[in-house]
């Protein structure tokens, strides 16, 4: 399998069989730094042995910090414990934090790195598909406030990202499908060819085929981020599916917790429906998108009795700055617009349509 390297805003994203490159990067750029690896118990069990035994000598003596899997670890109490652990280990500005895991770890680890000692360098080593194409790139890091997603955080870039595709071999099918949500989103908002590419990916993990698609997905996101790092304009396109999706994800945490990508599939379904009902998306494109998304929609026991709670979480979304709810709309497959404001009653129509689909 080959490796592809993407130049992001201020760092590089390496995609493919990249453990040798990770070792060379640390040895060349941070020879006098002490590495610490952060991971959750699941990713450490599957990925750390590759780090230890395959090809990253520069990390063999690294201390390891472990948290529990899941969004509950993206809490200030967990961050506080990790800050204390780093202090106890003698971590300082010559520490290099290596975040080995999925989106929760790359979010949490980046936040830790940006705040400890007012900032230490960090490398993102994503182990899930979602983290490879979304969470580890773009320079957003943060933690949750209760069940409200990513309410405390930073715009902060890693020194590099190394997406080692063989990690995906140990990924459950459910998580791989959830990761495809962000790839589909990238195609829908900016590149109709990429949408078709993702929809034609084989179910089995053909690393060379997936390499091209992952690299293209990251390229789309990075082009948007490069033009608008702090989300004053077109970076908001990346929020497509997330106004409804984040609310659905938060709502699910007290029931049967959904994966982030699963909730985003629901969010994209509703926001595609809204883009036709109250926007310019054609009926033909709406139907094509909804049919495609229906393949991946999770089982969800949503009813009208849940709407009040859904809108509680939606109104707490940091994208909203008024009584109206802020959306990114699709104009066509591969084209989108930002800052579309809707009333709660308008959004209710999409939720009802989703329930009755």
Describe this structure in words.
With 357 residues, the chain is an alpha/beta fold. It has 2 domains: 4-171, Rossmann fold (3-Layer(aba) Sandwich), CATH 3.40.50.1970; 174-355, Dehydroquinate synthase-like - alpha domain (Dehydroquinate synthase-like, alpha domain, Up-down Bundle), CATH 1.20.1090.10. It contains 13 helices and 11 strands. The protein has helices spanning 19-29, 41-55, 76-88, 103-115, 129-135, 173-190, 192-199, 207-227, 242-252, 260-277, 283-294, 307-315, 344-355, and strands at residues 4-7, 12-16, 34-40, 63-67, 95-101, 122-126, 140-145, 148-155, 160-164, 325-332, 335-342. Strands 1-2-9-6-5-3-4 form a 7-stranded mixed sheet, with helices on both faces. A two-stranded antiparallel ribbon has the order 7-8. Strand 5 (95-101), helix 4 (103-115) and strand 6 form a beta-alpha-beta unit. Helix 5 packs parallel to helix 6 (173-190), helix 6 packs antiparallel against helix 7 and helix 6 (173-190) packs parallel to helix 10. The mean pLDDT is 93.
